[in-house]
Amino acid sequence: MEDDDVTIREQNFHSQVREYIICFLLFAVLYIVSYCIITRYKRKSDDQEDEDAVVNRISLYLCTFTLAISGGAVLLLPFSIISSEILLSLPRNYYIQWLNGSLIHGLWNLVSLFSNLCLFVLMPFAYFFLESEGFAGSKKGIRSRVLETFVMLFLLGLLILGIVWVASALIDNDAASMESLYDLWEFYLPYLYSCISLMGGLLLLMCTPVGLSRMFTVMGQLLVKPTILEDLDEQIYCIVLQEEALSRRLNGTTSNSRIHGSMQHMQHLHKELESIRNQRNKLERRKKASAWEKNLLYPFVMLILLTGTTISVLLVALNILYLLVDETALPKGSTDRGIGNASLSTFGVVQAVVEIILMFYLLVSSVVGFYSLRIFQGLTPCKDDTTMTTIIGCCVSILVLSSALPVMSRTLGITRFDLLGDFGRFNWLGNFYIVLSYNLLFAVVTTLCLIRKFTSAVREELLKALGLDKLNLSYSPTDPESAKLSTANGHQKTL
Question: Which of 238, 371, 421, 483 could staple 108 via S-S, CB 3.0–4.6 A?
Answer without folding.
Answer: 421
